[in-house]
């Protein structure tokens, strides 16, 4: 292929790559009992042929990850914290009696896909690749035991990252009826079956005129855990003395990698941080007294999103003046700058993708 053809192909891809579009390829690996993992195979993004007896469809041995690759100032791409996502997939696999994918294979799979499809990412700094690794029991067998064949794959689509833009604040509905997770359950891993039961609560939130659901602990229905598929931060105080508080990990909700990144970036910016239990009552009282000045959600998909209004069955309250506050904006900018290579990578989070091999 000549340089000209590559340019034309890239031009076509750019013209066609809208937010939400899947990219051209996927990476697939298979695991078989006795023989282990096959080598990663780059294929066109296409249907998978499945038996109606595919075990994952019946018994739910199915796990996911979600991470992003961002355009860098040198024109290349960098995947954000792929090894941390690899290790979380391993934890999810162990919890679900699934085979563990070696960390290096996970990294090779995501970088192979990002490298192959990098022309699909425009230079618009608001666009990134969302990479979705997933693994499921692909054995055709209805015996409820750990399957003997699994498929691991990575697909990808173009996502907006709100780079440099103001995202309005979200409204949150406190869910007391359906806990998302419980001690000893699977809330601290990324299991496919965690998500379908949340859709009903999400529908209730919409009926209550709110954007997102706030999840409480299952036992007391008192302690704030997460919002939607994102972790929460509360800002106590203001200015350089502000403290960023996030619910401490209890084992029942997800230890987000963005949560970890946010804690580190907040400290880098000179803020104090705390991991502690936060009750709905304290959240509300803190907002009413002015002690809690801001609340935001963070996650790979959510980036950093302000929460401006909260509703539960006793009424509504506003966080600060209801718009994204200065600490939220500063953290969001630091996170986005870190993704896009605009600040030094002191934590070793950015994983550069090698340039695509020319066929
Ligand atoms: C994925 C996810 C998050 C965010 O995790 P990140 O690693 O930051 O993307 C938070 N909560 C739930 C329930 C999730 O599924």
Automatic annotation (TrEMBL):
EC number in record: 2.6.1.42
Keyword Transferase: yes
Enzyme class per UniProt: transferase
Catalytic reaction equation(s): L-leucine + 2-oxoglutarate = 4-methyl-2-oxopentanoate + L-glutamate; L-valine + 2-oxoglutarate = 3-methyl-2-oxobutanoate + L-glutamate; L-isoleucine + 2-oxoglutarate = (S)-3-methyl-2-oxopentanoate + L-glutamate
Cofactor: pyridoxal 5'-phosphate
Transmembrane segments: none
Keyword terms: Amino-acid biosynthesis, Aminotransferase, Branched-chain amino acid biosynthesis, Pyridoxal phosphate, Transferase
Origin superkingdom: Bacteria
Cross-referenced Pfam families: Aminotran_4
Single GO term (MF): branched-chain-amino-acid transaminase activity
Keyword Glycosyltransferase assigned: no
Residues that bear N6-(pyridoxal phosphate)lysine: 190
GO BP term, pick one: branched-chain amino acid biosynthetic process
Pathway entry: Amino-acid biosynthesis; L-valine biosynthesis; L-valine from pyruvate: step 4/4; Amino-acid biosynthesis; L-isoleucine biosynthesis; L-isoleucine from 2-oxobutanoate: step 4/4; Amino-acid biosynthesis; L-leucine biosynthesis; L-leucine from 3-methyl-2-oxobutanoate: step 4/4
Family indicated by similarity: Belongs to the class-IV pyridoxal-phosphate-dependent aminotransferase family.
Protein name: Branched-chain-amino-acid aminotransferase
